[in-house]
Amino acid sequence: MALDPQAKGLLDAMAANPAPRIMDLPVEQGREMYRGIAATLDVQGVPIGKTEDRTIPGPAGEIPVRIYTPVAAGGDALPVLVYFHGGGWVIGDLETHDALCRSFANEAGCKVVAVDYRLAPEHRFPAAADDSFAAVKWVEANAAEIGVDATRIAVAGDSAGGNLAAVVSQLARDAKGPQIAFQLLIYPVTDTNTDTASYRDNATGYFLERDGMNWFFDHYLGDGDRNDPRIAPLKAASLAGLPRAYVITAGFDPLRDEGRAYADALKAAGVPTEHVNYEGMIHGFFNLRGAFDVARDAVKSAAKALKEALA
After folding, report:
1. Contact at 8 Å (CB) between 81 and 87?
2. CA distances from 73 to 93, 108, 142, 148, 278 (A)
3. Which of 103, 132, 159, 169 is catalytic?
4. Which position among 4, 98, 191, 253 bears the catalytic label?
5. pLDDT, tens digit, 9 for 90 and up, residues 293-307
6. Is 158 considered catalytic here?
């Protein structure tokens, strides 16, 4: 398994011109740095039919969301994807994942509701999970108002957002609603064990680092229970009855093994699951489409799976 040449070029450039690590900055500066990375390395100017910023009720106040309508929307109710951004539950927002949400809306022919859940350390676990679940319940309850089909709801997210999508799927199953048809998990956090082979092999030098993940866990969890399925969905007592899944991992990602383990566990529990590992890629590549050809292809493939699942 070799590192993709474009990924190697980016990592070499970063090593030659080292910037402060996000975990070494004050949180607000880390958030600003992440916005800058997204603005520089993701594609820009993705057309969209319409966007609407609004707030919805949450368990501790209003939750900002952004609703995307694809270019070719038509007049019928559309399937809907509820999207949770990555960033370790600490950084990331509606802007860092705007281009990706636009692409999913257009490529999959669905509306996208992006959720700006509460961030740590200001709001620790389980604030992000609670907001995310509340958002999916709101989408189902208000489907007619926002022009979506309540029987065709999918959830998705990358990294910490993939964790939230997996967690919400479990919460919805256990609560017997909302009915989620599909979960798209992009290099998701599914466990809190940072001593897997992929963590050891990719501990430093591949964009996301093991120390960085521990920093995110410390900010989000504090002294919380690291075995709680709402932070480690791989530790759930059962994965049976969960929505069909599409799980993406990257070969040079510390999270690779837990993503694969979750896909394997879903399959073992009888959940129709497709696992795609991009062997030469690094963590975060879905937001690096301006730099990586593979990333553009991967987003199209994921959107195709989403479209087929919600057809």
Report:
1. no
2. 25, 11, 18, 11, 31
3. 159
4. 253
5. 999 999 999 999 999
6. no
CATH number at residue 40: 3.40.50.1820
Q: What is the pLDDT of residues 118-142, one digit of tens each?
A: 999 999 999 999 999 999 999 999 9
d(CA 232, CA 190): 5
SS (H, E, C) 58-87: ECCEEEEEEEEECCCCCCCCEEEEEEECCC
Residue 85 designated active-site? no
From the number of C-beta atoms within 10 Å of its C-beta (0-12, 13-18, 19+), residue 111 rates as buried
The answer to whether 92 and 216 have CB atoms below 8 angstroms apart is no
Closest CA to 37 of 299, 284, 298, 297: 284
Predicted local confidence at residue 95, as pLDDT: 98
| C-alpha span between 37 and 10 (Å, rounded) | 12
Task: Please name the residues in contact with 18: beta carbons below 8 A apart, sequence gap of 6 or more.
Answer: none
Q: What percent of the chain has pLDDT over 70?
A: 100
At residue 55, the 3 state secondary structure works out as strand
Structural domains in the chain (count):
1
From residue 163, how far is each of 51, 262, 290 by CA, in Å? 25, 11, 25
284 vs 101, 130, 158, CA distance in Å? Answer: 15, 24, 8
Q: Is the pLDDT of residue 162 over 80?
A: yes
| Full domain range(s) for residue 144 | 5-309
Q: How far apart are CA 220 and CA 88, in angstroms?
A: 8
User: Which among 310, 283, 309, 281 is positioned nearest to 297, based on CA atoms?
Assistant: 281
Helix (H) or strand (E) holding 229: none
76 is catalytic: no
Report the alpha-carbon distance of residue 162 to residue 84 in Å, rounded.
7
Mapped onto helix, strand or coil, the DSSP state of residue 184 is: strand
**pTM for the structure as a whole:** 0.98
